[in-house]
């Protein structure tokens, strides 16, 4: 029996999600459904398959493999891991139930992968057409990508194609039991250790559905729960064994994408407290110890926020003011680094912003 070329895995926990749209996009992805093409696996997370078959309808149900995964945990890691474990194709591809692919996407991504690439990073866009500008790769580079030079850590969701042999070789799994960030370790290891990573810049895109954006929860969890994935990454012996430049690049990404936004979201939401401050102070100190000098590539405004976070006496008003100041892009403090030697480094604001704009 011939195996599929691509095992596409969709995780769903709510039959009200637009699952039919997601599945239909896979049937129009340029590969036939079945042997030698794409096998579509829908993992029903903490619900039975019956309401999903109703949502799909008879025609689409006939084209999917339904798997029930009742783990009782509110995290997509479990169902995605189950779907990946059930894969036998050359590649695996994961998708959220709110999302969909542009026509011909899987075929184009497979062409990009060829016979050698361990992964193909899909270009992304929002349903309203806005481009997702991650990762901010080198704009004129073709061929294999480099984790540091192409800033691959900014793409944490491993969307696109992953060679199944690489999943097994690298021992890749999404981290179960986390409130968020379950894909951080998976993607970081893949970008660093993968044998050939491609970015399919001109291929049809992975579309982030507006349904997902509209359903973002405003329930605030304790900071140490939201950022538990950072603790897990810093505790991992794999992280400690990375070259210093790689640890620094990961630390810069964590600060930019996760720490700074967490501060402002909580302050604006009126839920910032001393426990949050104490936790982030310790986290920044750990990052500085494990990735010495990582902040040298951050803007002056960014480093002011880090310094205020490690200052237990800093008041919430000061943190709010500094956090907003770092978002006033275009001002010298947001474009320049404190150290002239890092002004034009790969992670420094000038090159980072330029690469993002050219993506």
Query: Quick one: biggest sheet?
Result: 7 strands, mixed
CATH domain fold name of the largest domain: Spore Coat Polysaccharide Biosynthesis Protein SpsA, Chain A
Mean pLDDT over the full residue set: 95
What Rg is obtained from the alpha carbons, in whole angstroms? 21 Å
Distance between the termini: 42 Å
Number of helices: 16
Helix content estimate: 40-55%
Number of strands: 11
Number of domains: 2
Give the structural class: alpha/beta
Order of helices and strands: EHEHEHEEHEEEEHHEEHHHHHHHHHH
The CATH superfamily label of the largest domain reads Spore Coat Polysaccharide Biosynthesis Protein SpsA, Chain A
Organism: Leifsonia tongyongensis
Keywords: Transferase
GO molecular function, one term: transferase activity
Pfam families: Glycos_transf_2
Structure description:
The chain is of the alpha/beta class. The protein folds into two domains: 209 residues, Spore Coat Polysaccharide Biosynthesis Protein SpsA, Chain A (Alpha-Beta Complex), CATH 3.90.550.10; 136 residues, no CATH class. Helix content is 43%, strand content 13%. Strand 1, helix 1 and strand 2 form a beta-alpha-beta unit. Helix 1 packs parallel to helix 2, helix 11 runs antiparallel to helix 12 and helix 11 packs across helix 14. The chain is globular. About 2% of the residues have low confidence.
């Amino acid at each position: 029996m011939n195996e599929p070329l691509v095992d596409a895995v969709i995780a769903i926990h709510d039959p009200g999600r637009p699952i039919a749209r997601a599945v239909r996009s896979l049937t129009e992805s340029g590969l036939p459904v079945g042997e030698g093409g794409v096998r579509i696996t829908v993992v029903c997370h903490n619900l039975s398959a019956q309401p999903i078959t109703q949502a799909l309808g008879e025609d689409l149900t006939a084209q999917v493999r339904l798997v029930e995964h009742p783990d009782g945990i509110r995290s997509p890691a479990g169902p995605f891991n189950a779907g990946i474990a059930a894969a036998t194709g050359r590649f695996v591809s994961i998708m959220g139930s709110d999302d969909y692919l542009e026509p011909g996407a899987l075929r184009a991504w497979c062409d990009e992968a060829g016979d050698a690439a361990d992964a193909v990073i899909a270009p992304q866009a929002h349903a309203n057409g806005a481009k997702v500008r991650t990762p901010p790769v080198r704009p004129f580079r073709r061929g294999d990508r480099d984790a540091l030079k192409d800033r691959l850590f900014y793409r944490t969701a491993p969307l696109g194609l992953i060679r199944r042999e690489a999943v097994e070789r690298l021992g890749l799994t999404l981290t179960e039991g986390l409130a968020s960030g379950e894909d951080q370790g998976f993607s970081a290891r893949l970008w660093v250790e993968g044998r050939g990573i491609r970015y399919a810049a001109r291929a049809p895109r992975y579309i982030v559905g507006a349904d997902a954006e509209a359903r973002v929860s405003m329930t605030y969890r304790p900071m140490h729960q939201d950022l538990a994935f950072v603790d897990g990454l810093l505790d991992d012996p794999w992280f400690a064994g990375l070259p210093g430049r790689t640890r620094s690049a990961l630390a810069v990404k964590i600060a930019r994408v996760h720490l700074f936004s967490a501060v402002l979201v909580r302050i604006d939401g009126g839920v910032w407290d001393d426990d949050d401050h104490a936790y982030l102070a310790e986290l920044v100190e750990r990052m500085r110890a494990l990735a010495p000098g990582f902040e040298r590539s951050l803007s002056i405004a960014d480093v002011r926020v880090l310094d205020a976070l490690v200052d237990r006496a800093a008041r919430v008003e000061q943190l709010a003011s500094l956090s907003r100041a770092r978002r006033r892009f275009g001002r010298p403090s947001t474009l320049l680094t404190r150290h002239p030697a890092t002004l034009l480094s790969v992670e420094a604001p000038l090159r980072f912003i330029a690469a993002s704009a050219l993506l």
